[in-house]
Amino acid sequence: RGRSSQQQSPAHERAALRMKRLSRRVTARAASHIAANHGGGGVALWQRVPGSDRWRSLDGGPSPPRAGPSRRSGLREAQSALEAVLLPCDFPHSVGPGYLRYVQWTSIGLVTGKVESILATQAALFAVGVGAGAVPMAAAIQWVLKDGVGHAAAIGYATVVNTRFDADARRYRFQATAGHTAADLVACTMPLAPKTVALVGLEVPSFLLLGSLSSAISSVAGVAQAVARARIMASFARQGNLADCTRAGQSQAKLMSLVGTAAGIGLSWLVGPQPAHVIGLMLPLSLVSLYSVYRSCDHIVLTSLNQQRTERVYHAALDALAARRTAGGA
Predict the structure, then answer these.
(1) Can you give the pTM of this predicted structure?
(2) Residues 236-256: pLDDT tens digits?
(3) Cβ 116 vs Cβ 259: under 8 Å
(4) C-alpha distances in angstroms, 278 versus 115, 261, 265?
């Protein structure tokens, strides 16, 4: 077998050489025919070099320019990658009809809310003494205590509300945004408060008092927002893709948090630590945040019955029964 293959190899080489010559003759004849029918010299023939992006001419003409990726295709690829990160798979068929508008308004609220949080944190740090030298141990203890008060308030609030989160998810979501706004406004007033406040015959540091109030409101609002978001994502899921919708929502929240953090740092540097300036900037941001969340709630459709919806259903049924009795009596 080895001898027969060695004897046949020159024959195969000669056959391949004949095929190449024949293909060149056919290509040359086709080129001359095309040039004769199209006015001569108007058509150029090229062949791509195997394994590369270069071209070679078959009729002696100039080589074509090297084709690069178009700007439109690059934008499409970037848009597809962004949609894969921020939207559920098989969008828009896998979610409800109002999902995109809900995300748009929610994104505005997340950005403005993060800016508010940055400004409130700046005011709280200024009130506790950061920037005026070393922070004393008492201030650090007060900071930890206010967080502990906030966690305890969140536990108590979640226990009291319990299963009502499922029926009134939209209401608790709006209330959560209002709570975060109120907590940030309280934090912004810390530098204006006196050092200590008389409470039940005791001198209590105003930072501990206002910080605990702000932390409690913020923690309660955080619980309401997290629980309401889970119910809202369940209302948008259409293909058993609750986890995917939640994943997309978390990605959207993290991205908007990055944008809001950058904007908040820039605004805090421009405004400075003056409480009057910070509060003056907080008020329009709060209005934008509340309005955007209110508009986003318009696109949430819940199929469960709460107290208000149940009353409307029974009220319509009772009106229909009363109308039938009146018609029968007549």
Answers:
(1) 0.69
(2) 999 889 999 999 999 999 999
(3) no
(4) 11, 16, 12
